[in-house]
Amino acid sequence: MTTTTDARTTRRRAETRARLLAAALDVLGERGLARSSVENVCERAGYTRGAFYSNFATMDDVVAALYTDQAGALVERVEERLAGGLPGTDLDQLVGHVLQVLPVDRQWHAVRTEFTAQALRNPEAATTLTRQRAELRARLAPVLVQALERIGRRPTVPVDDLVRALVTAHEGLVTAHLLGEPTGVGPRLLTVALQTFTEEVPA
């Protein structure tokens, strides 16, 4: 009986957290971080402040949790895409294959950009964002290395540096795309980065 009760409590808590995060993403996307409040999120999710504070301490914690969830979903999409094999052994094909499953989410990009701006002014937010970005790179690194191995290449720089360059370039391209700028050269830029910082594995 205790096990069943505990399982229900855990499931209910997870559902509450998920609903709060979904509501927070909507609120943050509409109002921006500076004009969003705990009350706004609770009202949108249909919960009390107590439910919020049993899951999060601040709105910054909510954004950090959203970042973790979004980063996890991104890595999972890339892993699933690569699990089905690659269309060839060309870097252009690898980049194009992965880009096909990377979403351009205007709402999330707006929230992430605002939090980045806040991190430039707030040391605590900066620490949180730096940690989240490092965790994303750590999850992407082995995925990238495995993909390169499958086309006979390997990094010539620390993998974290290579992932950092690719993530930064991709974020910049997404920003340009959402602003309506032409980004046709984007995939090529990512390919060039891979060509520059990787090499063929000797036979």
Structural account:
This is TetR/AcrR family transcriptional regulator. This protein has 203 residues and is mostly helical. It folds into two domains: 1-56, Orthogonal Bundle (Arc Repressor Mutant, subunit A), CATH 1.10.10; 59-200, Tetracycline Repressor, domain 2 (Orthogonal Bundle), CATH 1.10.357.10. It has nine helices and two strands, in the order H-H-H-H-H-H-H-E-H-H-E. A two-stranded antiparallel sheet has the order 1-2. The protein is globular, with a radius of gyration of 20 Å. The relative contact order is 0.10. The mean pLDDT is 87.
Could you write a compact summary of the structure shown?
With 203 residues, this protein is an all-alpha fold.
